[in-house]
Write a structure and sequence with these properties.
The structure is a homohexamer. By secondary structure, the first copy, chain A, is an alpha/beta fold. In chain A, the strands form three sheets. Chain A has a five-stranded parallel sheet. A five-stranded parallel sheet of chain A has the order 3-6-9-12-14. In chain A, strands 2-5-8-11 form a four-stranded parallel sheet, with no helix packed on it. The N terminus of chain A is likely disordered. Chains in contact: A-B, A-C, A-E, A-F, B-C, B-D, B-E, C-D, C-F, D-E, D-F, E-F. At the A-B interface, helix 4 and strand 15 of A face helix 6, strand 13 and strand 14 of B. Strand 15 of chain E pairs antiparallel with strand 14 of chain F, so a sheet runs across the interface.
Amino acid sequence: MERQFGSFVFLSQSPLLLPPSPENIGRLERLLLHVFFPISAVDAEAAATEAGSIMLRSVASALHFENPERSEEDCSREARRVMDIFLASIPRLKELLSLDAQAGFEGDPAARSVREVVLCYPALRTLVMHRTAHLLFQENIPLVPRMMNEVMHSRTGIDIHPGAKIGESFFIDHGTGVVIGETSVIGNHVKLYQGVTLGALSIPKKGCGVLLEGAKRHPTLEDNVTVYANATILGDITVGHDSIIASSAWIKDDIPPCSMVIMQRPDVKVRPLRMS
Amino acid sequence: MERQFGSFVFLSQSPLLLPPSPENIGRLERLLLHVFFPISAVDAEAAATEAGSIMLRSVASALHFENPERSEEDCSREARRVMDIFLASIPRLKELLSLDAQAGFEGDPAARSVREVVLCYPALRTLVMHRTAHLLFQENIPLVPRMMNEVMHSRTGIDIHPGAKIGESFFIDHGTGVVIGETSVIGNHVKLYQGVTLGALSIPKKGCGVLLEGAKRHPTLEDNVTVYANATILGDITVGHDSIIASSAWIKDDIPPCSMVIMQRPDVKVRPLRMS
Amino acid sequence: MERQFGSFVFLSQSPLLLPPSPENIGRLERLLLHVFFPISAVDAEAAATEAGSIMLRSVASALHFENPERSEEDCSREARRVMDIFLASIPRLKELLSLDAQAGFEGDPAARSVREVVLCYPALRTLVMHRTAHLLFQENIPLVPRMMNEVMHSRTGIDIHPGAKIGESFFIDHGTGVVIGETSVIGNHVKLYQGVTLGALSIPKKGCGVLLEGAKRHPTLEDNVTVYANATILGDITVGHDSIIASSAWIKDDIPPCSMVIMQRPDVKVRPLRMS
Amino acid sequence: MERQFGSFVFLSQSPLLLPPSPENIGRLERLLLHVFFPISAVDAEAAATEAGSIMLRSVASALHFENPERSEEDCSREARRVMDIFLASIPRLKELLSLDAQAGFEGDPAARSVREVVLCYPALRTLVMHRTAHLLFQENIPLVPRMMNEVMHSRTGIDIHPGAKIGESFFIDHGTGVVIGETSVIGNHVKLYQGVTLGALSIPKKGCGVLLEGAKRHPTLEDNVTVYANATILGDITVGHDSIIASSAWIKDDIPPCSMVIMQRPDVKVRPLRMS
Amino acid sequence: MERQFGSFVFLSQSPLLLPPSPENIGRLERLLLHVFFPISAVDAEAAATEAGSIMLRSVASALHFENPERSEEDCSREARRVMDIFLASIPRLKELLSLDAQAGFEGDPAARSVREVVLCYPALRTLVMHRTAHLLFQENIPLVPRMMNEVMHSRTGIDIHPGAKIGESFFIDHGTGVVIGETSVIGNHVKLYQGVTLGALSIPKKGCGVLLEGAKRHPTLEDNVTVYANATILGDITVGHDSIIASSAWIKDDIPPCSMVIMQRPDVKVRPLRMS
Amino acid sequence: MERQFGSFVFLSQSPLLLPPSPENIGRLERLLLHVFFPISAVDAEAAATEAGSIMLRSVASALHFENPERSEEDCSREARRVMDIFLASIPRLKELLSLDAQAGFEGDPAARSVREVVLCYPALRTLVMHRTAHLLFQENIPLVPRMMNEVMHSRTGIDIHPGAKIGESFFIDHGTGVVIGETSVIGNHVKLYQGVTLGALSIPKKGCGVLLEGAKRHPTLEDNVTVYANATILGDITVGHDSIIASSAWIKDDIPPCSMVIMQRPDVKVRPLRMS
């Protein structure tokens, strides 16, 4: 295993056997914001090449780290293929995110402008990363999309697994505590509030059952569904289009379209308080 | 549009048409902590001038960005006016935040000293930014107060809209998931726990109704109110002074003063579990 | 108080009367990850010495800041003693965290590998800091363990007081909004979901009662307990081993071993929605 | 010396007994560039307040560090006085630096525009700091002006002692290795090349003589003097106006006005080289 | 000049009228080192895309800043063209820099390996930037190549104007104070020591003469020339191949090939020193 | 080559095959300043452990990078041995550097205090790194000492090869352009000015001669020697104790003790200049 300096490859043993750098993954958020909400054409293009460069390095590292038996060349080729997919997808992603920003403006009475949504709303920042991470997830890239997911979870309290499929014009208000599981499917014009969980019914990995790889474990929300704060929707069920789910509701069964799901609130007793 | 270099104004076209820098907004937290909890007089003064400089630049950018038809001079003048208001308000804000720190110490049995509250408690960091952002909000500065709000939302999970009016000696324990809406009014000596929402009843912006600009959509909490974890208080209602709201309560109606609001907890059944 | 330059001690007055640096505390997370999940032996050792150096400085500062009457020498000696304890505890902590990572892999069907848990899961990052902070807490070090706690609370939304005792193979899924109070005791193989609170019943510090220093105010969870999302367990009670607590349950009483605690969910009414 | 927390002064012992922060001194260069060559009026004003804030903190620290017997209040008052002088001097400094930039453009055939001088030339960066440092030096501020001097020495290889008095329209080409001593006096329209020394004849501090405090030990260069590369001018002599000094010349005596100082170059012999 | 938000171009007025960012130019050094001396193929490719992204943004800014009448689209197109030239030139630049590293190893007896040259020698770092800057200079890009030049001048004390043409296998030992002027031409296998100047005879820009745009003002050094420390070579002269110039020599005339240029050193008198 | 996760060694292939990180080497300067000129005992100790940690990692990397056939364990063991030597040498290095600072104060009439020397003088910063790098050089550590050398060369323009042996109370004034070669030997109380070269006579590595490994190629300066600016001393000669070398002198022969070496300055002709 000779070390050829003439060709300036410093290392004959592969240095790719390190996981993707969390700092680099963290830089993607701001770069992608410049890509999708550009200040100018050249700014967008430069941000896209820089984001692509991080993607290239991170994806190749992740592939090699998880599959040390694959050659470095092979991992790089695969990474380049995925970077090209990302670059080709920018127009479509930009369109989707523009609709999300518009949905945010329309969905929050406190929003003064679409610009405020882009600059301030945690949901939009999270979607910028999620929609890109989902692309990588569909290409079976390990680690990187999950790291993108957790960077945003850490920064916004919104935890969207990169596997989740999300339609157009999606909005989450406030967002802290939202959890959207791996096999969730969300239609167009859906709106969630803080603390909403789209979760799985608990299935132990080990034990009497077998977790079917790729089995759908999380809900489907059809178009125009609104879910108020802290509602919990569990399992592979469907909430029909144009339905509204009350806050704190706990749902494990299909909901027909155009339903209003009201929760029988626990009684609240108000009694005078003797002050000490 | 001549470019006079002699006078060293590099650019004849306005460069202010960029939004305020998120990095600068993010630096405000630490600077304001030095302003309000100073290590020495000169440290406080230097931190105040630095915070003022960021405010000046950010506010001018925000005004010009949102109102491109206003002249740069006009935006700068307005920014300077607001910076002066901030500098003049420091003594009052310092007094308020000192009371908040004291309230934190008294409100949490686990707190060993007021210093621990200042150094460790997310609520205090958030209030340092909120009380300053509220000042800017009252002066109708766009974007900047909301960006300050979201910086702290991201760092602490506490989401206080800069429009919310908050009295003296306010405390939030833990704080993750707290949401305090734009037109909320909070009296003195109020204490909240994690996950509390002071929200609005949902009003679509578009549709059959019209959102009255400035309408009060969020609750009023009078003096000495305590709200336990995950309670939700919605709409323009009033919780009377010296009341206590149980955790997870869901309230849409006025509560008279000196009330204890108890929630009829859902029954919890405990049954033996056959171990597999 | 002469200023001897010959001995190159710049300052005769103690400069330690500053609180520990938040930036340094913040750097501990990444360093400890390298200590406990090393890339190589030398990387682990270098990270351990660097983490130890931050600990030394922070602990000495904290001791002197909180006890200005103690001499600097005394604070340094104490800090060195604690750093030695940390260094000696690394093998045991590494073993514990390895079990936690394994528990994360087994506990989440979406996890593809133990490496993904180490790289992506907020619970593991939080435990890396908590298990170290708990060590300092047991040695009565002020401020530093609480600052470590709040750094992770800010980054993950998981708030574990450094006083909490946690057994082997612990896992928290998603984690946002989890609160684990100071005197909580958690057995082996326990698993929590997002939004779970292990809290205290409210005891005012001032007033008719006296807060017993060191009194146990938070729950004990015995081995193999699972607590689903948003459940609230309050006071010095015991949840017996091998029990399961349903999501959103609200518990103030002891639960016998091998129990399934089911909550009578509030009725959810589904009615057709007339679309406007 | 009680520690009043109510007034939020954390420390009763003075924390100012630390030297000024080198990082802060280092940040001054960029800020001052924004002050004197502004992108917009608001940018200049914000940069000036930020630079002033650093100056305030650094000067107060330096005064207290060098004079521990002075009270902190006294040091702060003095620092504030100096900061006000700086702020009041900005228009005059801006004018001077504008002339320097113009001199750079006229003095270097390779310069394409005045903007290139401002963006690229080490001499201009150094003058931006020197002219400000000289102001502080004249107010007898210790350490800070010397630290500003050394920051630029490190970044450009140009070493101008803050005591040096420099007239209008000054330019240094390339600059590496230039040394300008403490009591140098430089007229208007002077131009130096790389490696020029304006030095002192060596006077031992200790020994048979006494170093007269404030004695002039370095040269005076009158208006319109040009000194070519690596020339050395030593002692309290005067180079008369409109003179030109050849490169590598070594001068210890007064030079009359309008002189051309030519150096008898050592003979250079060119002989054929037998190639091995 | 409408502000279309739908297309997410925030700003209708051009934001490019800012000079290239010095921070970005500064980052190029490390990136280019990764491009030309890569750790792995994917690392090199990612570094190249990131360097290209900085180049794209900087070049477009520089073009627009210096030519405000050119449209932004036009500047971007031109920047993209130049970036493509850079990317296409990487193999040739890599080959050249590999030869430079080899020349450094052979030229310094203290060098232990070619790797040490790449990691430690200021000359190599400077050439990595110079050879890239020269490419931009040849394409008539304003500002950016000069900024690259000055970044390295600041970091290494070696000042190579981007216009200078440099052949293969070039080496500079130590380097501090080296100045290589804009129209210098350097052959293959040339070696310089610290303090060498390849300068112009002074030509005032204004005055009785006219500076011929593009006139050659600096020396040509043919192949295999060695110039020892602090030698000064001035004007459009030629130093013939295989010549050696003694240290401190001062040369204004052509030197024939295969010459040894020796300087008649000034006499050095050694006399006994009476110790005081 | 199995990847054992249980033991948490991520990588079975050695990740050490990367060169030492330049960023880490760069951080050593400030840390070593804290070690040798401490603010307090605990600050010094923490800085020493952090510097030691960087040294450990860098030395191990350098050993493995230059000797890939050595096992990682072996490299780490060697690195630990060297770190221990460094830690044990701190008292002696501190004493030496204290004498250097005192020498700086006594050697420069412009220095107001020893503190100013420590805070501002490039020579002292360089010695802090050199004296440590020399220690590593003596232990035959590759790359790291040279990288430390070049970091300081870049920051101060002073280029001291780590092999150079330097006695007590050494001082360099200004320093830009100073070069001190690998086999130089410098006695006690020596003082140099800017631009001084202690160099080798040129010996081609390849060619008719053979470079004797370890041959002394650079000068010896005995005690109490002073060398003025830009003097050049070449080859394995000795400058006897208590000698003074004039500026710009060029010396290739032994100088007896107590000599004053004066250079016959080239004649300087002053002639009147006809102004155009």
